[in-house]
Amino acid sequence: DLTKVVEKETIATQKFIRNRPTLSWNTNWNTNNSVIFHIVGEPASLHPTNEPSTIAQFIFQYTQGFIARGNLATLAIEPGVIINSNLPINIDDLRLHYALRNDIFWDDGTPLTVKDIEFTLKTHKCPLVENSQAKAYFENLDSISINIENNSFDVWMKKPSVLNTFFLIDYPILQKSFYDSNGLLDSYALSDFDDNNFKSTASLSAWSTVFNSAKFGRNISNLNGLGAYRVDKWDSGNSIRLVKKLNHWTASLTNPSSYETTHPDTIIFQLNTDPNSQYLEFKNQNFDGS
Prior knowledge:
Shape: globular
Radius of gyration: 22 Å
Mean pLDDT: 87
Number of helices: 7
Low-confidence stretches: 1-8
Largest sheet: 4 strands, mixed
Strand content: 15-25%
């Protein structure tokens, strides 16, 4: 009996589960506008620069903004907060030019500016920031020049490399006023962090200690980002729940990208590591995707 054989399979042995067409609405079904996404492991944190896990990077697609991003559906590179149609405008072998859109705002209502971009790059270059997985990608970054009036910026690379046009993709943009309200990193240039003789100050050490801490990785009240969703609840070992932000800047866009279109009110990342249980959850339509 083929049915009995299929019933014995687990989710690990199948490419997909096909449920029979629904002929009527089951009153027990959830009517909430939510998506439940199955995961087999949870991230250690959701720190925007320091957490390298794949699931964290996936969640960031909903909670963060990027200079440019890799589209998971098309596998193409597309603009994030920049207006350039070509990614990027390559002035020459070492200089790359970008301009920011003027319709993107942080949750406190302030607009995204090139100062936020500059701060993000400085943070990644800072030797005291615990982003070892990203440090190598920023080693070839030499300097940045910002034009506040035009909200544009240029980055200079140290040497030509095929990675130069791709290294800024999918790195969350940090809000300078949120993470560095006292402007501590204003006194540093990117080149300062390349100096082999660089010596930290007490103030920089104190700032980095807080920045690297769980305050910005596990405390959901401090998980800040440009994305249309925020972390509403984190039940460690069970689930991470995202909720759509009210009055978010994406709601006023006339031609939003797929990543700027928000259909579900809630996205739940549900942890389940047991293959047999996973199979039953999908068959009972308790999971929407994996």
